[in-house]
Design goal:
By secondary structure, the protein is of the alpha/beta class. 44% of the residues lie in helices and 12% in strands. The protein starts with 11 loop residues before the first helix and ends with a helix. One of its GO terms (molecular function) is transaminase activity.
Length: 480
């Protein structure tokens, strides 16, 4: 008889002991993260230089893993949960989200089909219907309507699947069979839009020559008149407009494209309208901020926002909605024999494998469900309102200081500002601020001028942190 080797796994008791240690480590990290430099100070290759050149042949204790976390990993991190992290839009995690992620990993569910874990699919459907209600999105984006929601990893994936669905619709399915004809289609967005659209057109086979970058108005939002002119020019030349991507909260400045007039133009030309609200969309949980979605209900074919940015839900979690689920499923459904099953054949269930690029999928809905339940709608509104109020206070300090100028409207939680005058002092200011380890900012270019960005929304960020950030900026600026 052949001797079959028996693998050695962590026992339940060992898991309990190490699990408690991990939870304690995370809690301790959250309590001490403010004392760490926000941006990592390691040099390129420094982290790898501390790692063994070959993997261990014999398993080590998990205690050794935790020890190396402190000595090797943490010094090599930029701390996104630091209250002085203002560089990019936040990835604001929270206790409920982290605990739910642990449950997700422990359950080890693969939710590609309804049949492979019904609760994984149905909880996701339900929690995204909840979120649609919380953001006052239209019924067409829910499973009570003609569409529905799906959790993608990021807004980049939402843009890609929206584009593929738009191509499927405009071509009557021909693109899925025959591919994309060179020079036949065009896609439109503003000069301020996220670069994810460019990556999407590359992946889809359209190519970057299909993109039409539309100029903006003084407030940096897309100019509808310029959009109409671009579509008209393409139509005359026999080029088919496929999709317009309007942005609600651009990465660079937080600009808000006018969805309603853009939507009317899309309706006129039969063009798919995708609304990328990755950063700003969750602000609509507050009734007084729902104006940012004007036109979405009437005109959007798809919509996406990221709870992992400003809604306390651990990365990654993008809520992607479509008004017509048939277009999306028609574009992405491939059903080999080994995936066939009675539930799918009945047509009574949703198989989320048809709503995304990969086949496999994690149980991401569990953490969003936990966050909504533990904070409640009012708790999430408080978080958003707190961030907006802090940003308005920071902007007021900037406006009151004659050395500085505000560079863009700031209705939400992003403030773009700079020292008046040439770019070089602003570049030196940013470098000095980030080298200090106390705060971390990023930059953009607004109307040709080097501009600093301060984005608020982190879980731990409070008034005292924003006040300290302004004091630090003011002092470093004075030192030149």
């Amino acid at each position: 008889m052949v001797e079959i080797p028996v693998p050695q796994h962590m026992t339940a008791e060992e898991f309990r002991r190490h699990g408690r240690a991990v939870v304690d480590w995370i809690a301790d990290y959250w309590e001490r993260v403010e004392s760490l430099p926000v941006r990592s100070r390691v040099q390129p290759g420094e982290v790898r230089g501390q790692l063994p050149s070959t993997p261990p042949q014999v398993g080590e204790s998990f205690d050794a893993v935790l020890a190396d976390l402190d000595t090797i990993v943490v010094p090599g991190l930029t701390h996104w949960q630091h209250p002085g992290f203002f560089a990019y839009f936040p990835t604001s995690t929270s206790g409920p989200a982290v605990l739910a992620e642990l449950l997700t990993s422990g359950l080890g569910v693969q939710g590609m089909l309804w049949q492979t874990s019904p609760a994984c699919t149905e909880l996701e459907q339900h929690v995204l219907d909840w979120l649609a209600e919380m953001l006052a999105l239209p019924e067409k984006f829910t499973f009570a309507g003609t569409g529905g929601g799906v959790i993608q990893d990021t807004a980049s994936s939402a843009i890609l699947v929206a584009l593929v669905a738009a191509l499927h619709r405009v071509s009557g399915g021909q693109v899925a069979r025959d591919g994309v004809a060179r020079g036949r289609y065009a896609v439109y967005t503003s000069t301020q839009a996220h670069s994810a659209l460019e990556k999407g057109v590359r992946i889809s086979g359209l190519g970057t020559s299909s993109i039409r970058l539309i100029e903006t108005r003084p407030d940096l939002s897309m100019d509808p008149d310029a959009l109409r002119e671009a579509m008209k020019t393409d139509a005359v030349q026999g080029i088919i407009p496929v999709m317009v991507m309007a942005t609600v909260g651009t990465t660079s400045t937080g600009a808000l494209d006018p969805v309603e007039p853009i939507g009317r133009i899309c309706r006129e030309y039969g063009v798919w309208l995708h609304v990328d609200a990755a950063y700003a969309g969750v602000a609509a949980v507050c009734p007084e901020l729902r104006w940012i979605h004007q036109g979405v209900a009437a005109y959007a074919d798809s919509y996406a926002t990221n709870p992992h940015k400003w809604m306390l839900t651990a990365f990654d979690c993008d809520a992607c909605y479509v008004a017509d689920r048939k277009a999306l499923v028609g574009a992405l459904s491939v059903l080999p024999e080994y995936l066939r099953n009675t539930a799918t054949d009945s047509g009574a269930v949703v198989d989320y494998r048809d709503w995304q690029v990969p086949l496999g999928r994690r149980f991401r809905a569990l953490k969003l469900w936990a966050v909504i339940r533990c904070y409640g709608v009012e708790g999430l509104r408080t978080h958003v309102r707190h961030s907006v109020a802090l940003a308005q206070q920071f902007a007021a300090w900037v406006a009151a200081d004659e050395r500085f100028e505000l560079m863009a409207p700031h209705p939400l939680s992003l403030v773009c500002f700079r020292l008046r005058g040439p770019d070089e002092p602003n570049q030196r200011l940013l470098e000095a601020l980030n080298a200090s380890g106390r705060i971390y900012l990023s930059h953009t270019v607004v109307r040709g001028a080097f501009t600093l960005r301060l984005a608020i929304g982190g879980t731990a960020t409070r008034y005292e942190h924003v006040s300290a950030a302004w004091d630090h900026i003011s002092r470093i600026a004075a030192e030149g």
